[in-house]
Amino acid sequence: MNTQFEFEKNHKQACGIESGVNFNKADIGTFREIKDFAMENKELKMVSEGKVFLHDLLKLTGAEISITSIPANTKAPFLHKHKNNEEIYIVLAGQGIMHIDDNEINLKEGSIVRVSPDAKRSVDNNSDAELLVLCIQTKTGSLEGFTLEDAEIV
Ligand code: ZN
Question: What domains sit in the chain, N to C, each tagged with a CATH number?
Answer without folding.
Answer: 3-140 (2.60.120.10)
